[in-house]
Write a structure and sequence with these properties.
The structure holds 2 protein chains of 2 kinds.
Chain A (H helix, E strand, L loop, with lengths): L1 H26 L9 E7 L13 E8 L3 H30 L7 H17 L4 H60 L7 H17 L2 E5 L5 E5 L4 E4 L2 E2 L1 E6 L7 E6 L5 E4 L1 H4 L1 H37 L13 E2 L4 E4 L8 E6 L10 E5 L4 E5 L4 E5 L4 E3 L2 E7 L7 E5 L9 E2 L13 E5 L8 E7 L10 E5 L4 E5 L9 E2 L4 E5 L2 E6 L7 E6 L8 H8 L11 H41 L3 H35 L2
Antiparallel strand pairs in A: 1-2, 3-4, 4-5, 5-6, 7-8, 8-9, 10-19, 11-18, 12-17, 13-14, 13-18, 14-15, 16-17, 20-27, 21-26, 22-23, 22-27, 23-24, 25-26
Helix pairs in contact in A: 1-10, 2-4, 2-5, 2-7, 2-9, 3-4, 3-8, 4-5, 4-7, 7-9
Chain B lengths: L4 H28 L10 H55 L6 H22 L35 E2 L5 E2 L4 H6 L1 E2 L4 E2 L1 H13 L5 H58 L3 H27 L7
Helix pairs in contact in B: 1-7, 2-3, 2-6, 3-5, 5-6
The chains are: A alpha+beta, B mainly alpha.
């Protein structure tokens, strides 16, 4: 009877604990990180005196229901989703910058070209000239604005990286502290379930910032390592992360892992994974490439108009001055360089520029220049060298073997782009020279394609071509050397003093063709027409401005589109993994309700067993009465 | 398989959010009328739309430049017409002057008539083009291109051209047409020729025979001048025809560009409206099923 009482009370106790566990599960159904618990029952042992009946039931432990593999999978997918979503969010904002074609760089460029068309019709109208200068300024402004907005997006992503690093540092510190607490309390029989829940939640949170692998030791302490195997938490010691500038390109961020012993290692964000990698990929790679493309287009436009302007003369007959100013390329030595060399770079040919920056290294005898956009390497024994439209020179000092430099090219031009002219008369709409056929010519010789290759000291000196017959001519004028008896063929090109022209037709003896200074440059539109024609010239590394810009728009769109698809895909993978994990570890309220009924019944049955034992005891007492 | 209640709620909510996003997207397309609102909506279409937009911008610029040439050449055409009718007047006057029986007074009247015609012709030859230049301004003139003496040309001979695809002159050569026109054996100025005749007709000491003789030779110059202006006028006419064709091409190109642009970026309203209705239905269904399912709990039955 006393055994029955004991069995009954152990069952009552067990049912009570099961009900409490269920209550705890229900209470924490929506607590983040909570892992549902089960009371594990075990039959109480035999007392050895009355056969093998047993002594009721014991609650062996309160178990967390979880599957370590599913937890691991969920964490891995979580860092993947965080990485892809962060990049996609960034690209989505970049995409919006290119959303309205009417306010884009392409439209600004086309308006500029159209203003040249208008000035060809009214070269002497200073408001038409002023409109060109206004459009030069508007184009420069648009380029700076878009570049500035992209720079802001990169800055904001870098700011987010710093927030994420702070979060990760707090998490690493907390994990080390939890390791200590879990180690202390794990010695007792019951596991510290709440601490384990907290630990797993922190591991999950850490995985949204970076990819972290966790190994759980026999003592319950977790060892956390980065994807590349760099330990981040070992026992109660932990590393801290710090954002630092990339050694070569200070505008990009790397991550320094400072170990508990004070030593450190520098990792690229791509080696860290998680949201940090996604943000860095967006800020330093996606934005960097878009800015380089914008820089290439801006520089090619500015240089081609400046070059053409330099071949013309303005309303007063003076040589054309630059329309645009442009940011200059810079070469920065790496801090670790042991040599004293300072390199310089300048733009030589705008139409040859690539959408890239460069790294330069010196191995003791050779300079190697790497184009960062496609990793093309070119080597030289000496400087200066002309590469991709840039002249790279040794400014001062001597390089040492192993020295490295960053040549910031395509990302430097837009920073300094602006309009240089404010006086409409300075627009060089005219060519410096004009051809005048002799009034008394009797043949039909004519000129086409008069153009200037370079304005020199003698360019506007008068030059006479006098035909001495249908197939011969003499030339006279300063700078020509006054040759005589030259052979004429229809369609030939004659060039002196920086100008050239094509002569066609059949001359008669005595016919002349004069090249003289343009008499009324204010009303001459020939150079303006040449500038208008630049609109569709292949002056950006072999392609038209608008084609390069359309490529940039298409590239941004493609990246945003595919990053969105990738982000959605990896988010789905994480959702699925989280579904699988919570299928094991999450609380199902219906299930808990059913269990509650079950345990309630068990509790009532146990109470009945005690009541029965009591009745038996009462019956026994009554039999003695 | 068991499903955690919290996860089931999250999945249901995610579903509603996703469907709402799709609904907002089709609403955006309908309100903007554009299928492509940012490059990622269709990168290839966005890139091509940039090129079409640029092509249209070039066409608009060309249309303005060529339209200007059309206006200048129409003006030139009527200027040549005016010059030609003045030369016809001069011709008739000279025919009267070619009569050797004219007395001194007749000759003086004829000389005065010729002088008036000559002045009017100079004014026509120096006519402004209405935009700050001159019809016979050659390669550009800042002031009246033909000097009062009628032989000095204050501009460089030739023409100013505009347009990229179709190059059109917007001025005419005053030297070849007036001040130093080729005769086949040298050059002459119609003004100088008229001046020589006027001098004789107004000279009371000149004989009727010498006046008739110079009238006869000046008639030759006037006829050559009429022919030359006729040739110039024909060239202007041809160019005006070419411009008209070119403007028509630009018009057609503009229509092509507009329809290409529309095909690339505009929304298909019928499809978008049906898509929107579909999205609306799915959002409603998701909301309804969520509210039904979230109410279901075993606790309701205990």
């Amino acid at each position: 009877m006393s055994n029955l009482l004991r069995i009954g009370s152990s069952a009552l106790n067990a049912a009570s604990i099961q009900l409490q566990t269920t209550g705890q599960n229900i209470a924490n159904a929506s607590t983040p990180g909570y892992v549902r618990r089960e009371a594990v029952l075990q039959e109480a042992g035999n007392n050895g005196t009355s056969g093998f009946i047993g002594q009721g039931v014991n609650v062996a432990q309160i178990q967390r229901v979880y599957d370590e593999l599913l937890v691991r999978e969920s964490n891995a997918n979580r860092s993947g989703a965080a990485q892809d979503t962060a990049r996609s969010d960034g690209l989505n904002r970049l995409d919006n910058l290119f959303g309205n074609p009417e306010t884009g760089m392409g439209a600004a460029y086309d308006t500029l070209v159209a203003s040249f068309a208008d000035v060809t019709a009214h070269p002497s109208d200073s408001s038409a000239r002023g409109a060109v200068l206004a459009q030069v300024s508007a184009f420069a402004g648009r380029a700076s604005q878009i570049d500035g907005q992209m720079q802001q997006l990169a800055d904001s992503a870098h700011g987010q990286m710093s927030t994420e690093v702070n979060k990760a540092n707090d998490t690493l510190k907390s994990l080390a502290a939890l390791n200590q607490q879990i180690g202390n309390s794990n010695s007792s029989i019951s596991a510290p379930n709440n601490l384990l829940d907290q630990r797993d939640k922190l591991l999950g949170d850490l995985n949204s910032v970076l990819r972290a692998n966790a190994t759980i030791g026999s003592d319950g302490a977790v060892t956390v390592a980065s994807a590349r195997g760099e330990p981040l938490v070992v026992g109660n010691t932990f590393s801290q992360l710090k954002l630092v500038s990339n050694e070569l390109d200070a505008s990009k961020l790397d991550i320094k892992v400072i170990r508990s012993n004070g030593t450190s290692v520098q990792l690229a964000p791509s080696e860290i994974g998680g949201k940090l990698a996604g943000l860095a990929q967006f800020a330093d790679s996606d934005i960097g490439e878009a800015r380089a493309r914008l820089g290439q287009i801006t520089a090619a436009v500015a240089m081609s108009f400046n070059d053409r302007q330099a071949l013309g003369v303005d309303a007063t007959g003076a040589a054309g001055q630059a329309l645009f100013a442009l940011g200059s390329p810079t070469v920065s030595p790496v801090a670790a360089n042991t040599g004293t060399a300072q390199l310089t770079a300048s733009v030589t040919t705008g139409s040859a520029l690539k959408a890239s920056d460069y790294s330069i290294s010196f191995d003791g005898s050779q300079y190697s220049l790497t184009r960062l956009s496609d990793s093309t390497v070119q080597s030289f024994a000496s400087l200066p060298q002309v590469v991709d439209g840039l002249t790279v020179s040794l400014g001062s000092g001597t390089p040492a073997a192993g020295d490295k430099f960053l040549l910031r090219a395509a990302t430097s031009y837009v920073s300094g782009v602006k309009s240089m002219l404010s006086n409409p008369a300075r627009l060089a709409t005219a060519l410096p020279v004009t051809t005048v056929p002799g009034a008394t010519n009797t043949g039909d010789v004519s000129v086409s394609g008069l153009d200037i290759s370079a304005i020199g000291a003698n360019t506007n000196q008068p030059v006479s071509i006098t035909f001495t017959g249908a197939g011969t001519f003499n030339v006279s004028g300063t700078g020509t050397g006054n040759p005589t008896g030259l052979t004429y063929t229809s369609g030939m090109t004659v060039s002196y003093n920086g100008w050239s022209m094509k002569l066609s037709g059949t001359p008669k003896a005595g016919d002349t063709m004069q090249v003289v200074a343009t008499a009324n440059p204010a009303s001459d539109n020939r150079n303006a027409r040449a500038m208008q024609a630049l609109g569709d010239a292949s002056n950006v590394d072999g392609a038209k401005v608008i084609d390069r810009y359309a490529d940039l728009v298409g590239e941004v769109g493609t990246r945003a589109q595919s990053a969105k698809a990738t982000g959605e895909m990896s988010q789905r993978l994480y959702d699925d993994a989280e579904g699988a994990r919570t299928a094991v570890s999450g609380v199902n309220l219906d299930e808990e309700a059913a269990r509650m009924l079950e345990y309630q019944q068990a509790y009532q049955a146990a109470a009945k067993v005690i009541a029965t034992a009591n009745q038996l005891f009462q019956s026994l007492l009554q039999s003695f009465a | 398989m068991r499903i955690a209640t919290g996860y089931a709620q999250k999945v249901a909510l995610d579903g509603i959010t996703d469907r709402q996003a799709a609904l907002i997207k089709s609403q955006e397309q309908l309100s903007s009328g554009k299928r492509v609102n940012r490059p990622s909506d269709d990168p290839a279409a966005a890139a091509e739309a940039e090129k079409v937009r640029s092509r249209q911008a070039r066409m608009d610029a060309e249309k303005r430049a060529v339209g200007y040439a059309q206006q200048q050449l129409s003006n030139a055409d009527s200027t040549i017409g005016d010059a030609t009718s003045l030369l016809q007047n001069a011709r008739e006057t000279l025919l009267r002057g070619a009569n050797a029986t004219n007395n001194t007074s007749d000759r003086f009247t004829i000389g005065a008539n010729l002088s008036a015609i000559r002045d009017q012709l100079l004014a026509v030859a120096n006519r402004s083009d209405g935009t700050g230049g001159f019809v016979f301004g050659g390669q550009g003139a800042n002031s009246a291109p033909i000097a009062a003496d009628g032989t000095t040309y204050n501009a460089q001979p030739g023409t100013v051209q505009v347009g990229q695809e179709l190059s059109s002159p917007v001025s005419l050569d005053g030297r070849a047409n007036f001040t130093a026109s080729p005769t086949g054996a040298g050059t002459e100025s119609i003004f100088a020729q008229l001046d020589a005749a006027i001098a004789v007709f107004k000279d009371p000491a000149a004989t009727a025979a010498s006046a008739a003789a110079i009238a006869q030779s000046t008639l030759g110059s006037v006829d050559r001048s009429i022919d030359r202006l006729g040739v110039t006028r024909a060239t202007v006419g041809e160019r005006l025809n070419a411009i008209e064709t070119h403007l028509k091409d630009i018009e057609n190109g503009t229509i092509d560009n507009a329809s290409r642009m529309s095909a690339l970026t505009d929304v298909d309203f019928a499809a978008a409206i049906s898509k929107m209705a579909q999205n609306q239905t799915t959002v409603e269904a998701a909301l309804k099923s969520y509210s039904t399912i979230s109410k279901m709990s075993l606790f309701n039955f205990l």
